[in-house]
Design goal:
There is one protein chain. The protein is of the alpha/beta class and 350 residues long. It contains ten helices and 17 strands. The strands form five sheets. A four-stranded mixed sheet has the order 1-5-6-7, sandwiched between helices. Residues 1-17 have low confidence and may be disordered.
Length: 350
């Protein structure tokens, strides 16, 4: 190319401006419109050796799926060999995909869907069985298999962890417990600042609120979604005990998280934990915060305490006006450490 031609070409590029940058990722608010919900069918006998309890757990997953599918499409993931059993319990409206699973935790093993400009992608946080605490040969591949099925790009965050361990409002704000992220069982060698930078990029957020959490006392290292949930921009529900036992690490950590959120200016609405529960075990997760907001409804837990069950319904109705509040007995999930939010993952509308 002659010098005159080179200068002309350079001038044209200058007038056109710089090359188009790759659009940033953005994970939209969970309460926004969904194209569908993903759930996972639990089958693994190493994880759930009690066959009678596994039957109850599968029925609980079916109850949740059958409730959601009345409001939006639902996809249940299961190996072909497990689908006959699933079909016996699931509504005919539920779609089954041939993606093998071990356990039920779609929030953690499923795909985190983000928008990148006009297209949807999987903003990938690699599931590793909550720090290699549980078998995850199949479940660790679920997000990638869904991305392949949908034809979505898989955009690595460089993190190991779970979407249940971080809450986002879809308007630039994240909250999380350090125990679920700044932990050698997930992200060895990464500082909190490095983990935060990766999470902000993965969600397309600008700011993050941390609190310490609880290390090593449960399989998740205290996921935030069983304690506090964003319900809109800078607004959250939090589930707290009325009479905390300050010797209980979860009670102490819950109030620390409350104070961190309040100090950061988040508008908080407190729901009391149930005083009465059908299941009395100390490890039972009785979380009203672990609900799922789908198109036109909120699918939530009830624990048999008339007073707090009613207070929780009223709080959800305040935060999600115009949506039907559906409450279910999901005690089987509480017995294995989770709730409805943990068992679901949304596919946001295009």
């Amino acid at each position: 190319m002659k010098r005159r031609e080179f200068l002309a070409a350079s001038a044209a590029l200058s007038l056109a401006g710089p090359a188009m940058a790759t659009p940033p990722l953005h994970v939209r608010p969970e309460e926004g419109p969904h194209e569908a919900t993903f759930m996972m069918w639990p089958v693994n006998r190493t994880v759930h050796p009690d066959g009678e309890f596994l039957d109850i757990l599968q029925q609980t997953i079916a109850d949740i799926a059958n409730s959601i599918v009345e409001f939006e499409p639902l996809v249940m993931l299961a190996a072909p060999s497990d689908q006959a059993r699933a079909k016996q319990m699931l509504s005919g409206k539920v779609e089954l995909w041939d993606i093998p699973t071990e356990d039920l935790w779609a929030r953690d093993a499923g795909p985190l869907i983000a928008h990148q400009g006009s297209k949807r992608v999987v903003s990938h946080i690699q599931f590793n069985g909550w720090g290699k605490k549980q078998v995850h040969t199949r479940d660790s591949q679920v997000a990638a298999k869904i991305a392949d099925h949908l034809g979505f790009d898989l955009m690595s965050s460089g993190l190991k962890g779970e979407a249940g361990g971080v809450e986002h409002d879809g308007h630039g704000l994240l909250m999380a417990h350090e125990s679920s992220w700044v932990n050698k069982n997930r992200n060895p060698g990464q500082s909190r600042a490095e983990v935060e930078q990766r999470l902000l990029k993965a969600y397309g957020a600008e700011r993050m609120i941390w609190s310490k959490g609880v290390y090593g006392e449960d399989i998740t290292d205290y996921h935030i979604d069983s304690l506090a949930r964003f319900t809109g921009a800078n607004s959250a529900l939090i589930n707290l005990p009325d009479n905390p036992d300050w010797e209980d690490p979860f009670h102490a950590a819950a109030y620390e998280t409350h104070d961190s959120l309040e100090k950061a200016g988040v508008r908080l609405d407190v729901i009391p934990e149930p005083e009465y529960r059908r299941v009395k075990g100390i490890e039972f997760v009785a979380s009203y915060a672990n609900y799922y907001a789908c198109n036109g409804a909120v699918i939530a837990a009830e624990f048999g305490d008339r007073e707090t069950d009613k207070l929780a319904r009223k709080a959800l109705a305040r935060h999600y006006p115009g949506r039907e509040i559906i409450t279910l007995n999901v005690d089987a999930l509480g017995e294995v450490g989770g709730g409805i939010h943990c068992a679901t993952q949304q596919l946001p509308s295009a």
